UniProtKB/TrEMBL annotation:
Membrane topology, record value: Lipid-anchor; GPI-anchor
Keywords of this entry: Cell membrane, Disulfide bond, Glycoprotein, Golgi apparatus, GPI-anchor, Immunity, Inflammatory response, Innate immunity, Leucine-rich repeat, Lipoprotein, Membrane, Repeat, Secreted, Signal
One term of GO molecular function: lipopolysaccharide binding
Annotated protein name in UniProt: Monocyte differentiation antigen CD14
Signal peptide: 1-28
Compartments reported by the entry: Cell membrane; Golgi apparatus; Membrane raft; Secreted
Entries under InterPro entries matching the protein: LRR_dom_sf, Monocyte_diff_Ag_CD14
Gene designation: CD14
Region (Disordered): 335-354
SUPFAM superfamilies tied to this protein: RNI-like
Length: 384
């Protein structure tokens, strides 16, 4: 039996004692910072001591790297305990940000984690490089409270067999979610049926889902509902034309300020005229195989990233205050032609637009980490 499995209420409470909030000397597996706020665990060794995770019990931010281990070992034969029995303890945790990365997680354990987290004050949850075994993940039952997350980041989480994992996870969230990232998750469309409830969403990242495509964006009518949406990232989603993207955004009446559609092979079919969202001030067209600068850009555009395209001439874009051009053919060949005010060689055409809002700084940084997960996953069993 793994030592962690024997962990019960008493040691957990002892760990919560203020005396033990003092910085611990670092173990090989988990590292706690001076203030005891951030805890990082790396269980990459062949037979890690899972109990090391106790060190993170009082942390605010916890990041767990599971080293690819299969967490089946934490599935007890008699079934998992109900975290409700540990509600008071869970409520006392300081945990706000949790990241779990690189492990095989049985769906029932993931369910128990989500259930346990509802009793904590966790605001940010990141799940990355996880394989979910023993599917399906059951949706939240109405008797369970929902999770009041501000941000959920799911990156490269896959399920054995067919299962709508995203839909099941999203049933756990309260509507107040602000940031959602479902990247590299094999999505074949914008998951509108699941997104419609998150009316306060301000940042949505669906990058690295090539299955979405332009038709997926055009059909994403739920974007109409997301009136608070300011950041939209659709990197590497098989978008094909700037006009198509503009048309879809116009049809949905989105009010995004920052749009990242880098890593899409964009041609520009400019025959259809379209108005970019008037709010749009930052557009990322990096790695888009563009041979020329699209002619009609958002009118109030302040930041335009055209790095790593196929531009052969220095573009002139007076209204843009921040223009990123590195990695284009002309930057290699014409270092001394800055004074030659050349027009672009091809007419990309484009779409007229009006913009209005000032550019607002960096996108929501989402540095989450997590370690108390295993604790939450496994520790509550002690109360059964
Ligand atoms: C985790 O530890 C392994 C070696 O055990 C190391 O190769 C890996 O880089 C570590 N990961 C992180 C994120 O520190
Ligand atoms: C786009 O996403 C797919 C699916 O995850 C990935 O295999 C591919 O490497 C990504 N392409 C780029 C340029 O990042
Ligand atoms: C634009 O997109 C590229 C590629 O995805 C990325 O490396 C870069 O950081 C982005 N730039 C901005 C300003 O967002």
């Amino acid at each position: 039996m793994v030592p962690w499995q024997r962990l019960s209420l008493l040691p957990m409470l002892l760990l919560l004692s203020p005396l033990l909030l003092l910085p611990w000397s670092s173990s090989a597996i988990c590292i706690l910072d001076e203030e005891g706020d951030n805890c990082f665990c790396n269980f990459s060794t062949p037979e890690p001591n899972w109990k090391s995770i106790q060190m993170c019990l009082s942390s605010v931010e916890v990041e767990i790297h599971g080293g690819g281990h299969n967490l089946d070992i934490f599935l007890p034969k008699g079934g998992l305990a109900d975290p409700r029995q540990a509600a008071d303890l869970l409520r006392s945790l300081r945990l706000r940000r949790l990241k779990i990365k690189d492990a095989q997680v049985p769906a029932p354990l993931l369910y128990q984690l989500l259930q346990a987290l509802t009793y904590t004050r966790t605001q940010v949850l990141a799940l990355e490089d996880l394989g979910v075994s023993h599917p399906p993940l059951q949706p939240r039952s109405p008797s369970n409270p929902a999770l009041a997350l501000k941000a959920l980041k799911v990156n490269r989480v896959s399920v054995a067999g067919e299962d709508n994992l995203m839909a099941a996870i999203l049933t756990w969230l309260k509507p107040g979610l602000k940031t959602l990232s479902l990247t590299d998750s094999g999505l074949s469309n914008v998951p509108c049926s699941d997104l419609g409830t998150f009316k306060e969403l301000s940042s949505l990242d669906l990058s690295d889902n090539p299955g979405i495509g332009e038709s997926g964006l055009t059909a994403a009518f739920c974007l109409k509902e997301l009136q608070e949406l300011r950041d939209l990232a659709l990197r590497n989603t098989s978008l094909q034309s700037l006009g198509g993207v503009c048309g879809a955004l116009e049809a949905m009446g989105v009010k995004v300020q920052r749009l990242d559609i880098s890593y899409n092979d964009l041609r520009d079919t400019s025959s259809t005229q379209c108005t970019w969202p008037p709010t749009l001030t930052s557009l990322n067209l990096s790695h888009a195989k563009l041979k020329c600068v699209p002619k009609s850009l958002p009118q109030k555009l302040q930041q335009l990233v055209l790095s790593h395209n196929l531009l052969t001439k220095q573009p002139i874009l007076d209204q843009v205050t921040e223009l990123v051009l590195e990695g284009n053919p002309f930057t290699q060949s014409s270092a001394f032609t800055r004074s030659r005010r050349e027009e672009t060689s091809e007419d990309c055409g484009g779409v007229p637009s009006r913009g209005s809002r000032p550019f607002v700084g960096s996108p929501l940084a989402f540095q989450v980490s997590g370690t108390a997960a295993f604790m939450l996953l496994c520790g509550v069993r002690g109360f059964a």
